[in-house]
What does this fold into?
Amino acid sequence: MRRVYFDHNATTPVDPEVLDAMLPYFSVEFGNASSIHAFGQQTRGAVERARQSVAALLGAQASEITFTSGGTESDNLAILGIVGELRGGEKKHVITTQIEHSAALSSCHALAKRGMDVTFLPIGRSGVIDPRDVRMAIRPTTVFITVMHANNEIGTLQPLEEIGRIAADADVWFHTDAVQSAGKIPVDVNRLGVDLLSLSAHKIYGPKGVGALYVRKGTHLEPVLYGGHHERDRRPGTENVPGIVGLGRAAEIAREKLSSDGERVSRLRDRFENGVLAAVADARVNGAGAPRVPNTSNIMFPGVASESLLIALDLKGLACSSGSACSSGAVTPSHVLTAVGLCAAEARSSLRFSLGRHTTDSDVDFALSVLPGEVARLRAISPETKRAPVVP
Ligand code: PLP
It folds into this structure.
């Protein structure tokens, strides 16, 4: 049976070149990168080359890159680390948005529990924050702003350059979660004006369980884990050398292919979206009209439960994702979709399709050949949305 994968925002396959680069570091090149002897020096060299590759993708210096276990840890380290550094001071206020990934959102909730004041800025229907709202939210006690770059569910891009200027004017630290933008569109830490930036290898054809945090020179962070003196005392623990090497190679490939991949994928995404809108009555693209990453399309199909459509499409061979989360039997519509103004029923009728480097015209044709029929079939038999599944 043919299977087409339209869920690249959940994860991507490891590029064969990335895998080749990693393999020796599981066996032959096994030394601990902190060891003094030749075995250790070999792997230390590989870790430092990977650091340079990640830095080059972001327009940063190698010394500003800290390796972590992924996007979640990078977000935690940025948000809890910067505020931990200032504990006990006057600065007690943090600004974020309602559409952040749970890694950032939950870290901000953790800060609130520890007594910080946190402003969760609302986002309008456009899916893009108004920088003036950020400026107005700043108080004399504000210490930190965290606003994601590309939203993982609807793909909208936030105006980081303007927010970066606002943060700099107010002398406030600025972090962005660039897990869904780095490697898909140009990301330059100086142009964006960020002090901290999170990324993850498995979203850019690298391995799972490894990521990085860019920390601008002069930015002080308190670690969230305690142990040895690895990663400039920012992140203890023996380095995941194969993972780090994989992230480095993935970053190099992403940099080489940035503009060709971006143009190709956005053409395919637009063809897919236009095809769906032409074939499915009342379908609507969530976040359309706003600047978006090239690969993401979140579409609402009124009258259809996203859970049912997701399963029906999977049975036909098309893998995508729903924006709803389900915990202990209670169905909560996506916090992103409700934050951008969709009612619960609309949010529960929306699916995310995320294309990737290996998506072809034939994959788009396949998706367009199954989707309209399944929507029509489900509309005929199940007009109401009741439940929705877990999304990674
Ligand atoms: N931030 C965003 C925007 C994401 O999309 C994800 C993953 O879905 C993460 C953070 C978490 O990254 P990781 O899976 O590497 O922990």
